[in-house]
Amino acid sequence: MTTMETNQPLAVYAIINGEKVESEQQFPRENPANPNEIVCYAPVTTREQAAQAIDAAYEAFKTWKWTSVDDRITRMRRAIAKLKEATPELARLLSLEHGKPLYDSEGEFAISIMWMEFACDNVKEATQEEYKEHEKGKTIITHDPIGVVSAISPWNYPISLSTIKIAPALLAGNTLVLKPSPFAPLAVTKVVEIIAHEFPPGVINIVHGEADVGVELTSNPKVAKIAFTGGTNTAKHIMKAASETIKKMTLELGGNDAAIILPGFDVNNKKDMRRIVISNFLTAGQICMIAKRMYVHRSIYDDFVKKYVEAANQWIRVGGPFNPNTTVGPVNNKNQKEYVQKLVDDARNKGAEVIKLGEIIDPELFEQGYFLQPTLVLGCDYRDPIVVEEQFGPTVPLLVYDDIEQVIELHNESIYGLTSSVWGPEEEAIKVARRIEAGTTMINTAAVQGLDVRFPFGGVKQSGVGREYGIDGIISYTETHVINLPIELDLPYIPE
């Protein structure tokens, strides 16, 4: 079975103030493994409808912010229970519209639910009121909800990168309007519908559409915070739109995450080598925290290339998302496929060696879908586009270095700093990690293999502002309010 059987395209809709809302215009979402098949039609929400969703959230906030944290947790746990029950079907819808293999979609739901449960378990501690008595009097510190949150999520991990915003926002007492990507609108709408059923109307809303909807979500004065995951260039426009009303922001942006392979790395360790391959090609390389460029010390370079190709050929099986043998599916959309192919062709034309990896197990499907065979690119210059740009697809350049100072400089000169990884003896790897400019550095692992929702995640430099996950990811949806009760109301240095 290579595709999911559907009788007709499925319905997608906006949810505003608890009601399903359709639009006059719709846009199709094709199956990336078979672009001739339309998976769903999503509404083109108008800017006016987006404003209505914000108005609904604004009104709902007036009462929702006063609900007890216990009530919010109870509602969220009911939603989580229903999401768990619906995961098998929802994961299939996600694979159908996104292209990622079914195991990958199921994994995304598992991570999402893990985070939502963590947020439920820890929101009380994160937002607990502090009461302090001291020589100057008394101080009460509260963590209050902010207001209406505009959440904008991308197509590559639409469920986890939506729930990463939804759970802490609602649990902290905010209301929310979500806009998912038009390249993955179906499964996330079903998820929001399930969650919305457990909350009062207007607390959580979802809209779809074009750039004008995004402008409304980021400029409307009733929006108090923006939570965005996506490209750095888009974030620059969001920051400009939000500047008029000085909105709070959490931005998780692009990265050009490097893997640094130290001379002490054991190339014969099959488990670690497989881990590196997965860190390059999971979700067809379409993960913000994937290892997008590799630097290998010259002393082990030849052996590393040989063992890497062996490991890649063992793990990579390119096919349709519902083929149980598939490990790498198609790229999500035509534009992304063309962009990645252009980077590979540019490197080849400049003299780089392009090595095709893995096995194509669905040849007929491969020819008609947005598939790219994974590639390892050797002999690039350090400044080639495939090295300095974020490929976001199934290709990775491998470069040689001679000393650690050289590779640290190459890493840190990037405008990005989301994640990174260092591979080798633990003590030496940690020393290198401490000198790397990144929000997260993983040792002997990378990508979602090293993700832990208990700890903060985010980028430095142009890879983002703020943190998600962990206690920090809950606190970021609150305002700190300090209430002072001084004993002495008169200060000695102020004249009578």
TrEMBL record:
Pfam families: Aldedh. Signal peptide: none annotated. It comes from the Bacteria. Keywords: Oxidoreductase. The keyword Phosphoprotein does not apply. Residues 23-482 form the Aldehyde dehydrogenase domain. The active site is at 252. The keyword Oxidoreductase applies. InterPro entries: Ald_DH/histidinol_DH (IPR016161), Ald_DH_C (IPR016163), Ald_DH_CS_GLU (IPR029510), Ald_DH_N (IPR016162), Aldehyde_DH_dom (IPR015590), LUC3-like (IPR044086). Belongs to the aldehyde dehydrogenase family. This is Aldehyde dehydrogenase family protein. The lineage of its organism: Bacteria, Bacillati, Bacillota, Bacilli, Bacillales.
